Amino acid sequence: MTSPSASADGPGSKEATPDRPADPISAVPVRYPERWVAAGVVLVLAAMFVNMLLTNPAFNWPFMFEHMFSDPVVNGVWVTLSATVLSMVIGILLGIVLAVMRLSGNPVLVSVAWLYTWFFRGVPRLVLAVLFGNIAILYSTIHIGLPFDNYWMPMLGLEGDARFFEIDVRTLLSGYMAGLLALALSEGAYMAEIIRAGLQSVNKGQTEAAQALGMGRGKIMRRITLPQAMRVVIPPTGNETIAMLKDTALLAYVPVTIELFYQLQAIGTRTYQIFPMLVAACLWYLAITSVLMVGQYFIERRFSRSERGVENRIVGGTH
Amino acid sequence: MAEENHMPADDMAVETADALVVAEDVRKSFGRLEVLKGIDLEVRRGEVMCVVGPSGSGKSTFLRCVNHLEKLTAGRLWVNGELMGYRQRRGRLYELRDSEIAAQRSDIGMVFQRFNLFPHLTVLGNIIEAPTQVKRTPKARATERAMELLDRVGLPDKANAYPEQLSGGQQQRVAIARALAMEPSLMLFDEPTSALDPELVGEVLDVMRDLARGGMTMVVVTHEMGFAREVGDSLVFMDDGAVVEAGTPAEVLSNPRHERTRAFLSKVIQ
Fold this sequence. Notes:
- Chain A is mostly helical.
- Chain A has helices spanning 4-8, 33-55, 61-68, 71-102, 107-122, 125-133, 149-155, 169-172, 176-201, 204-212, 217-247, 260-271, 274-303, 305-308; strands at 141-145, 163-168.
- In chain A, strands 1-2 form a two-stranded antiparallel ribbon.
- Residues 1-10 and 307-319 of chain A have low confidence and may be disordered.
- By secondary structure, chain B is α/β, with parallel strands linked by helices.
- Chain B contains 10 helices and 12 strands.
- The chains are: A mainly alpha, B alpha/beta.
- The A-B interface holds A 203, 205-206, 208-217, 219, 223-224, 227-228, 306, 309-310, 312-319 and B 67, 69, 98-99, 102-110, 112, 114, 116-120, 129-130, 133-134, 154-155, 157-158, 161-162, 164-167, 169-170, 175, 178-179, 182, 188, 200, 203.
């Protein structure tokens, strides 16, 4: 391998190296024929797949493009987007409350938060969606008033009830609202874990420094701990948002009839063009998640700003 | 509030008029481990007290007891005539609320070994955070004051830098400015130079020396014997959770009476 002249210029010889520029290495590279074979096989498979997409009549591309942008479908896209945003917003707020409860040290709050997380993480979202779709069986009306009035009012010898107004559940909690609630409550459980991890990632010294400055507990949480937890919380929250967008398809089983997946399936069954409409569903969800992924990339870059700052760190003191 | 708690009526001890910190039989245990075994100390107004001792001797724990970051297991501790963390009425102790303890702490500045600056805020943001949030100082006024303080610690051009862009010594000087922004009557230093590269120690000690000259009352846990000798009014040597020896720095450093003090000093001073 090594030529005799190269070994003469080896590490031992000192006089040649400093003033003579090094020869660039020109060597015959190792060949990997198996890589070419593997690439060829994959290319052939890919060509077969594309061919199938173009020639199999079951795809019925013209029909799909004609119906993919029809009014009820586009409306369904908006329903999907609004359900994603609303359930994430409610889920995050709920997650903050649950995470703070989990870390509060109050045994009642800790166990309630734990039980909540246990239930909503343990039951599949599809089951939750259907369950909430049928919640009106449990409550036909919701009364707003003082709790347990049916027990303590008679005990005190009082007539009537302590209910101030009532809501009809069948109108309030049907379809969209029921599905939204299912997704948001479930998301709250996942966000609670993410936010808890974020809060615990903040160094204890930060709290102590804030305490030493005379800041109270609430202020420390809002102004010191939460903002620092964000860096840890943001990336998984982006993933949750993308997952949530896909999970809005579960609303079809509540059922939420105005929702994207429900609409596409409805067109499919009505026209016996089931497969093109399922492909349309894939394309719609892919398009929206792709946009969200680009957004997530930029948000993550923004929140890792403080880490990049280390590169231009200024060493030494100014006196 | 300060007046109300001043001089608990039925209390036995304390308070020569110029004592700012009075510790009386302060004890602290973590589980079975007794870290402080009864500390009695007084820090006069304007005094700079240096606390030295081997690691694990309890000196940092004692410092954290002073501003109630650690709850005492037994004993009493007064700062500025106020019993820290409790209200004493008719011989009974009542725990103070979070907000009341926070108010007590706002009069005591603390500087930590690891700086603990808020990384998500600029240098200026770090300094004005407590004045604007706790004391409700208007932002313009707090900023003006912060710039004066930055000037005083020698960092007038770093207001808009983030902590991680600063060297350790600069961060610690910002941390001192941040504590001073609350205009405390007492400053606690918990090994302020122990996490610094050797060449950065001097700039922090310079700021502290300045502060001492300005008449600030300081309790400094440190390993810097030179600083203790030059700046300190008193020196306390702690070992195994107790005060072994206390006196002027000259006395303790040049003529230690106790064997344990001598053993420690021989290891620290080359």
